[in-house]
Each structure stands twice: as C-alpha cells, then as structure tokens.
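TL;DR need structure tokens for one chain.
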Amino acid sequence: MFRYNSRFVMSLVMSALLLVGIAALRAGEYDEYYTVFLLAGHARPGWPVGIFSAGAVRAAYHGHAGLVQIAQDLRHGDVHPPLYFWVASFWRAWAGNGLFPLRLLSVGISVAGLWGLGKLAQATRVPVASAILMTVLCYGFAYTAIVARGFALAQSLNIFGVWLIYEALVRRSGSRALLGGLCLGAASFSNYLACFVGFGALFWLFLNGFKQWRLWVLALLGFAAFMPADGWFFIAQRSSRAGQFAPFEWPKALALLARDGGASMFGGLTTYGPWFVHMPVELGLLGMTIGLLILMARQPQGLFVLCAFATPIGLLVLGRVFDNLPIEIRYLTFVLPFFGLLAAGALADMKPLRNAIIAVQIASVIGLAVAPATMQKQQILAQDLAPLADPSTLILLPFGNDGVGLPGPFIAASPDRQTILLVKQNFEPAQLAAMIAPYRLVAVPLILGDGSSRSAVPAMLGLFKSASCWQAVPTQEGIAAFENHCRGTTLNVISGIH
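>> reply
TL;DR here they are.
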C-alpha cells in the first residue's frame, strides 16, 4: 500500500516539476497577452501612434482590473467566459504582474487536476502512476497546463466533475452528484468547449443510473446552474471573432480531427512528420478508437470513452451548425485525461508497449519545452534583436489584428531602450519612409501571426526594396534588416546577432 501511495505522490511531484520547467522555458504567446492586458485593465492597449521606447509603455502590462471590468471587456471584445480570468485576477494581485506567475497558476491548477485524476484512477482500479504520466506527457495536456488561459481550470474542473459523478453512482450520493454537476458546469464557465465532457458524463450517469434518477437530476441541476451565465456571455460575444475559422467541410474536419488529435497526444508526428511517420500514428489512433468503442459497454471504461468522444463529436456538431472548423490541438486536450485513464488500464499488462508510448510522449514534451519550432516567434525575435537596442536603430513591428497578441510578447521581452514603431496593415508608405529616414538601421521582425501582419510585413519589405538609400544587410532567419547608406558608412552590427 505504501509503495502504491508513494508512486501516486511521485508522479504528481514529477508532473509539477515538468510543468514548471516547460512554463519557464516556453516563449510568451499571442493569446496569453490577451490575459495579461485584460487583467491589467487594458484589454486593447492604447499604444503610441508614433515611435516610442519599450520602457515607455511598461505601464500597459501593470494595473489591476476589477471583476466587473473584466466581465464587461470579455462581453464586448472576446469569446471567453470569465471564471478563469476572475481567478487569475486574485492570483495576480498576490503573485505579481509577470507572465510566469500567471503560468504558475495554471500549473498549480493542473497538478490539482492530476491529483483528481489519480483519485478517479484509484476508484476505477486503473494504475494510478501510469494514468497520471500518460496524461501529463500528452503534448496537448502539457501545453494547455502551463499557458495563461482558461484551459487548465476547465480541464481540472472536468476531471473533478467526472470523478464525483462516478462516486455519486457507486455510493448513491446525491451531494456528490450535485457537486459533480457544479464542477462540470463551472468548467464550461472557464471554457465553453469544456461543456462537451459534461454532456458525456451526464449521459453516462443517465444510462447507468436510470433507476437512481434522483442522482441524474441533481447532477443535471448542478451542470445547468452555469448555463444562464454562459449564455449571457456567449450571446454578447457570438460575432466577436467572425472569420476566425475556415468554413466547415466534412473531409477537412475529419482530417483535422485525425491530425490534431494525434498531435495532442504525441506532438508534431501527425502534423510535421512525413507520411511514413504520421500514417502509422494515425492508423494506430484508428485502431485505438475502435478498441475504445468496444469498451463502451463496460464499466467504468464506458464513462471514460463517452467523456473522451464527447469533445470531438461536439466540435463536429458545433462546426456543422455554425459552418466553421473549430478543431485545434488546444480544444482536443479535453479528451486527454480520459485517454490517459483508458490507455493506462488497457496497457497494464503490456508494459513494453506502454513504455514505448511513454517514450514517444517524453520526446514530444521535450520538443514542447525547448524546440523553437513549437513556439511563437514574438518573444524569441525580441530577444534576438536586444543587442540592437540603440537610439540609431528602429524596429518596425507589425501591429497585428488588434494590437495585443503580436506587440504584447515582443515589447515585453524588449530592453527598455529598444526603439519601436508599430505598423498597421493600411500604413501610408510615404509617411513611413519619412519616419524611418533619420535612423541608421531598421529591422523588421518577420512575425506573420495573423491576417494583418501577413499583409503588413511584405508591404514593409517592399518599401525598402524600392528605396535607394536602404540596403539589406545579412542577418538571421526571422529578421530582415536594412542599413541607411544616405547617412554615411556604418558598422554592420546586425550580423553579430545570434
């Protein structure tokens, strides 16, 4: 018994250390700075129109918005419910303004969720340490467990909700049924798409506890308690991100499910690998899917299968109804705790196969932590350009769609002395040419993170190619730099960036 409990504890400790390490190593992301600015009371920062230094705008990252302001800003300009942001607001007031403390909140919540996963594994006689490790080592779980967004809170609330629903049926406990429903409802109030797990758990309780209808009603009441609040936010936000996803097509939707579902478990093998790498992975996932469907008739595996399949089915239905493709790795991560439970149980007597899967997962998570290819470029390029922080050097930074996700990480990682000009998609070439004329060196970070930047960056590069005074100088990948020869001979300092 002691050994069993020690493995439980050690798997949680290892998970916590892993997630803290990933949180410390990964570059800041587009969506995370929505969180930072929302909590600071500047949901859309009012950046200077002209040239400014990074140090002059640090106040945009500070400040503390109240709960009402957070709710209002979300309803009027975002597509997320408020629960995570309210929790993060209290945490930020205590832990500080940086991105890393916000990530630690997600890590702490995720480790708590993994503890709940371990308790569910104990209750259902699944190997606890294997279930925890095969979950936390999933690429998508590790990723969403550290980002400063609502995924970790929604994921953990879903885990606790499913555990309580199972315990409610086994123990015939009305209080557990109600509390489980409340947890599942609260998960949707942290991320709308978390609701599909709730639907799966409630359907399982209905099928298996039909004679215990009181339990199902109590669980449903708990879940439904959050639906009016969800609706109040969702209705106000429904047109905030029109065009975010491509139109719905069945073949493309199913291909995305296979690719991103595999990537959420095993990293980039199904996304970036050649066909002879990703094809076996996808065929393996198909075989696993068939096996899981066979398990549906059994208890408690049927609960895990329903909770796992609820999200992809829900995303397909949602996409068909709204004519879009809301299928991404981060949304499919709600499947992963139940994949971990099912895989740990099914592979309990097949240790070589289990260990091989864990080895692939470890490799993918190492890539998540350290590989630049898995990270967004804003912070990385800002750090690469830091040696050029000089009054004679100007950084032309694309403003992006809304001035949040692209400038936010870049400016945060830039030295105070770095001179920056934010360039919008519809900039006036003659005006921009006049503004850059006094500078010896101009650098353009090639950040193509949204539609606006994909238009603005090529237009900026075209401006330099047509100007006789500016000559391109050697630099590293991801940065274009131009020297002003109309100001006399200068040193080619850009080549010293590493």
